[in-house]
């Protein structure tokens, strides 16, 4: 399976998954289930498939967030709402958000959800904790919720592989953020706001990357750009393999594209995910 196809699939899968962060239905659902504030909602909802895990587990698997931001929410989140109740709330809210934003999502789900589930089943969970935890959840009976859950599993599969590659290159979560910013993908202030790092910590990480020859002042060097390109290429290659189970993977991509374009209205651009606006 071609790595370019895996990147195309990321661009259509990510917006479907990301309603859980940006859609009002999902933010309200986290509040209604008992989670306090946006960040407890974020860490609790995304981390719920792992069970009642420690803050350290969330730090390690989510990657890139300031430990203090995580520890203000975890493990306290599990005292406000059980992972089981959070999982039910996030699935229902995501389904409602997708229906609101793209009324044709029922037809898309009927066609795409079973194919995405085939890919999920074919994917290797070795070394991919967030993917494996999501894969092992029961497939929702509601087809739109099933679509959302499958896209969530596959985006976490890609993300787990990406984190493994970043750590293999000796990059911390903060340094990975700085490098992305130095490439002009995401402005530094967006990372300060979303990931919780102070300007002083950001500057220290930039100095560490400068010593490695990866950034110069606020811009990535040729070596930095080459390193990031290698990581992205390998991320795509690792993410591509499960799609080989499909007879016509491109048909799956085409079926998801209209919903993805509609969902652009729910996301900020630029965003901390680094997702580009749909063409």
From TrEMBL:
Where on the tree of life does the source sit, at the highest rank?
A: Bacteria
Q: Which Pfam families match?
A: HTH_67
Kindly provide the name given to this protein in its UniProt entry. SalK
Question: Could you tell me which InterPro entries the record lists for this protein?
Answer: HTH_67 (IPR054058)
């Amino acid at each position: 399976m071609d790595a370019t196809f895996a990147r195309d699939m990321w661009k259509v899968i990510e917006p479907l998954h990301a309603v859980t962060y940006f859609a009002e239905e999902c933010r309200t659902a986290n509040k209604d289930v008992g989670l306090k504030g946006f960040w407890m909602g974020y860490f609790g909802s995304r981390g719920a498939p792992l069970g009642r895990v420690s803050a350290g587990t969330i730090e390690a698997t989510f990657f890139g967030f300031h430990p203090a931001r995580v520890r203000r929410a975890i493990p306290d989140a599990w005292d406000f709402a059980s992972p089981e109740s959070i999982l039910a709330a996030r699935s229902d809210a995501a389904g409602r958000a997708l229906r609101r934003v793209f009324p044709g999502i029922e037809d898309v789900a009927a066609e795409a959800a079973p194919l995405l589930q085939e890919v999920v089943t074919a994917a290797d969970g070795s070394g991919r904790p967030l993917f494996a935890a999501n894969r092992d959840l029961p497939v929702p009976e509601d087809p739109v919720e099933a679509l959302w859950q499958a896209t969530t599993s596959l985006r976490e599969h890609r993300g787990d592989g990406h984190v493994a590659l970043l750590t293999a290159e000796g990059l911390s979560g903060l340094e990975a953020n700085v490098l992305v910013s130095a490439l002009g993908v995401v402005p530094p202030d967006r990372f300060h706001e979303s990931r919780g790092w102070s300007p002083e910590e950001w500057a220290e990480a930039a100095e560490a990357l400068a010593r490695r020859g990866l950034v110069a002042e606020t811009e990535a060097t040729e070596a930095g750009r080459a390193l990031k390109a290698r990581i992205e290429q390998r991320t795509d290659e690792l993410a591509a393999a499960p799609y080989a189970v499909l007879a016509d993977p491109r048909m799956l991509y085409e079926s998801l594209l209209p919903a993805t374009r509609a969902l652009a209205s729910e996301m900020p651009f630029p965003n901390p995910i680094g997702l580009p606006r749909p063409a």
